[in-house]
């Protein structure tokens, strides 16, 4: 079984600054995917960024980037130039490779507040 | 293409009652996954349906059951409701091939058991 741990229940950042959210996971699998999802007050879970475990290069999506350390089982999310619209709950998630998308294990989330 | 839609958005039930939640998958998707998200926690995987068959189940009791229809929409049924079943129930749809890793979520159904 997999576990995902997010050790920061709440974080805040000033608009335009950079913030890093932490995630660690435990698994015996060698092939898997890691995700960061954003859940705004509207409740709909939105995919922010995805990392394939077999890729050494860290994923980036515009202002969002990850620091993936496979040996340490660490997967942090960096948000650059934070915007007010980034205020949301952020979830780290794990999915084994070769499974239908949707079978994921989630952490308990980090509530991020971007302050003007 | 239409997104994932869930109904109802909110409902209140009494302990011991039964409830049915509905999910319409995104066009072209044959896989639906259901999650329970308690307040302040991350989503917990309940089960997944692929082409009308259950395709994996999380650590939930048998009173949580599901169904997927030929049009790939899905229902989650919960019998003998307990107070701890109060949560946001999310469904997610995906194309159903292991090469596509993204699941698309609906806006959820907020269930309150009193």
Layout: helices, strands, pairs:
The complex is a heterodimer of chains A (116) and B (114).
Chain A: E1 3-5, E2 10-14, E3 19-21, E4 24-26, E5 32-39, E6 46-52, E7 60-61, E8 64-69, E9 74-79, E10 88-96, E11 105-106, E12 110-115
Chain B: E1 5-7, E2 10-13, E3 19-24, E4 31-37, E5 44-50, E6 53-57, E7 64-68, E8 74-78, E9 87-94, E10 104-105, E11 109-113
Would you write up a description of this structure?
The complex is a heterodimer of chains A (about 120) and B (about 110). Chain A is built from no helices and twelve strands. Chain A is mainly β. In chain A, the strands form three sheets. In chain A, strands 2, 5, 6, 10, 11 and 12 form a six-stranded mixed β-sheet that branches. A four-stranded antiparallel β-sheet of chain A has the order 3-9-8-7, with no helix packed on it. In chain A, strands 1-4 form a two-stranded antiparallel sheet. In chain A, about 35% of the residues are buried. Chain B is globular. In chain B, a hairpin with a 6-residue loop joins strand 4 (about 30-35) and strand 5. Chain B has no helices and eleven strands. Chain B has strands at about 5, 10-15, 20-25, 30-35, 45-50, 55, 65-70, 75-80, 85-95, 105, 110-114. The chains are: A mainly beta (about 120), B mainly beta (about 110). Chains A and B meet through strand 6, strand 10 and strand 11 of A and strand 4, strand 5 and strand 9 of B.
């Amino acid at each position: 079984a997999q576990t995902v741990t997010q050790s920061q229940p709440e974080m805040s950042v000033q608009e335009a600054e950079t913030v890093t959210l932490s995630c660690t996971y435990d698994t015996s699998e060698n092939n898997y995917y890691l995700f960061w999802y954003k859940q705004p007050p509207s409740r709909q879970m939105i995919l922010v960024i995805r990392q394939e475990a077999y890729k050494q290069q860290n994923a980036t999506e515009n202002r969002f980037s990850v620091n993936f350390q496979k040996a340490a089982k660490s997967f942090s999310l960096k948000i650059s130039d934070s915007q007010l619209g980034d205020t949301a709950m952020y979830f780290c998630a794990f999915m084994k490779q070769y499974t239908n998308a949707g079978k994921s294990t989630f952490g308990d989330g980090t509530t991020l507040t971007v302050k003007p | 293409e239409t997104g994932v839609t869930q109904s109802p958005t909110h409902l209140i039930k009494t302990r011991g009652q039964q409830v049915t939640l509905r999910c319409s998958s995104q066009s072209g998707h044959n896989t639906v996954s259901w999650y329970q998200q308690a307040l302040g926690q991350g989503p917990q995987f309940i089960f997944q349906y692929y082409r009308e068959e259950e395709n994996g189940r999380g650590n939930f009791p048998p009173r949580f059951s599901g169904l997927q229809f030929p049009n790939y929409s899905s229902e989650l049924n919960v019998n003998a409701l307990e107070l701890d079943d109060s949560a946001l129930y999310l469904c997610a749809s995906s194309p159903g091939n292991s090469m596509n890793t993204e699941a698309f979520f609906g806006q959820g159904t907020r269930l309150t058991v009193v």
